[in-house]
Amino acid sequence: MKLKQILYILPVLLGANFGCSKDVLDQNPQTTISDATFWKSINDLKLYCNNFYQLLPSNPSNNAFYYTDNNSDHLVPSASRNLRLNGETLVPASGGGWSYGDWASIRNTNYFLTHYQSVSATPAEIAPYLGEAYFFRAWFYFDKLMGFGAVPWINQPLSTGDEELLSTPRSPRNIIADSIVADLDQAISLLPSRTTAQSMRINREIAQAFKTRVCLYEGTWEKYHSGTEFGVAGQDGSKFLQAAAEQAQALMGNAAVGLDNVGQPDGYQQLFNQLDYSSSKEILFWRAYKVGVLTTGWNRYSNTGGATGMSRRLVESYLCTDGKPISVSDLYQGDDSLETVVRNRDPRLRQTLYVPGDLMTVYPGNVGNVIFQRPGFTLAVDQLNTTGYQLKKGNNTDPAQIDYTTRGLIFIRYAEVLMNFAEAKAELGTITQDDLDRSINLLRGRVGMPSLQLNNITPDPHWEFPDLAAIINEIRREREVELACEGFRFNDIMRWAAAPQLINGYRPKGAKWAQWEGQYPTLIPGNNIFLDDEGYLDPYHNDELLTTGYHFKENRDYLLPLPVDQLTLNPALKQNPGW
């Protein structure tokens, strides 16, 4: 649909299902509004802002949120290759992220920003909702920036007469990034703190944390895409990296945020399977779900395989308990079995994948327990495990929580802020041991891992980025481990311009098959299950287009293509490089 047709439609206000406070949840949905009768009270501003929460990502059924890294090198979905990673994306005729719904969210924030002053209220009463509007415009525009790079920056609601704006070209990428950061700065200045904000609404700390994500992304994008068609002329990313570090540091001094479950057995795993994070210091931004919404059980995919599996690459990235990589540590017990894979390893590995004997489900009533014995290799395609490394992260064995009840979907947690701080400082070349002790080493300390010592990093012959500094390699490794399967990996690959190191020529593998020899009578290696020359599971062995690994097109695939209809309807738009 043409942008002109999208942006002058009056927004529809929906009843909130964001797990907000009771008065939000009890609002009757409105399907039409009139400027003459709306924009009267503070409650109108609140009702309008409730609509923005509806547009946040939803939690896939069966706890499938933790399979969002299927679009990366960390998980191996049964649906074979990822089209974008393999350079198979096509220019869409329409849609493709440039549809009515995609732009309507931005249009609706602009509509709020040009109408809120009609409300009769004090600036202090208006400020929280005005802050929410600025936050959500930044949230929605950041998604556009990651997908398309430069896009038109539109900061007012458009009407049928706005022909000049409706035919506007794409603004330079750095202008879009600067504008997103400016919106977040506005939000930070207006929003209440998390200690005074209404329950389940955007607060200042959420906006601060999100700003660190935006600035780290754009800073590293500018740095690693410098000199290419995707870079920003005259920019090296340092401005954004500095902003990421400064904003993270400001948040790190806030007593209202911190890490949960420090030193607790299985404390890392317990972060990801809770129903209510309202008392958490770490989970800054999350979405709740109401009883009755779910139609399938919490643990179904965890119990079977989830139509995916952790890759061998991800599993091998975890350090041993002496703080050394498996390539050099005397503690490494090898990978002949799942039990040896996790032995003497970073405890986060043991809390992320299933090992025989693990409790998978405690059913309510007298149904009994389900214990993990071996991966689900022989199940239906939409349930099977592909690699032998079956994902446990997100699994919940509390019978009080798994009986079709609510569950929380995490958007931002404080651990990411600590990671963003360390990475920004390392990329700037200013990181110190004190910086590490205030960030990464807190994450390691939570699970009892040794601290990272800036001047005593053990060289790893298998570093993913041998041309980069040792500290950057180790910070990126820590990011892999701490944020595994939470949906960050694809965007990390894009902003690091890391397709040559991580994607091209890569065909994901799994565990050693010999440990299950004879346990699956219907599976015959070389017939219906495939191994590489070393005996590791090779799920994509029969995919002719992956014989030599993925074929990401580095001159094209870092950004999505604009749809044909929009290029035709708006000649001022230009296609992304390589398409």
Total of helices? 20
Order of helices and strands: HHHHHHHHHEHHHHEEEHHHHHHH
Strand-pairing-aware structural class? mainly alpha
Report the helical percentage.
25-40%
Radius of gyration: 24 Å
Work out the number of β strands. Answer: 4
Question: How many strands, what sense, and barrel or not for the largest sheet?
Answer: 2 strands, antiparallel
Q: Beta fraction of the residues?
A: under 5%
Rounded average pLDDT: 88
Low-confidence stretches: 1-31, 291-299
Strand order of the largest sheet: 1-4
Distance between the termini: 20 Å
Shape: globular
Structural descriptors:
single chain, 579 residues, mainly alpha, two-stranded antiparallel ribbon, two-stranded antiparallel sheet, 20 helices, 3% strand, disordered N terminus
Task: Summarize it.
The protein has 579 residues and is an all-alpha fold. The chain has 20 helices and 4 strands. It has helices at 3-7, 22-25, 42-54, 100-113, 123-148, 163-166, 173-190, 204-224, 238-252, 300-304, 312-316, 338-342, 347-350, 414-428, 433-437, 440-446, 470-482, 489-495, 499-502, 564-569, and strands at 283-287, 359-362, 369-371, 409-413.
Write the layout of secondary structure elements.
Elements: H1 3-7, H2 22-25, H3 42-54, H4 100-113, H5 123-148, H6 163-166, H7 173-190, H8 204-224, H9 238-252, E1 283-287, H10 300-304, H11 312-316, H12 338-342, H13 347-350, E2 359-362, E3 369-371, E4 409-413, H14 414-428, H15 433-437, H16 440-446, H17 470-482, H18 489-495, H19 499-502, H20 564-569
Antiparallel strand pairs: 1-4, 2-3
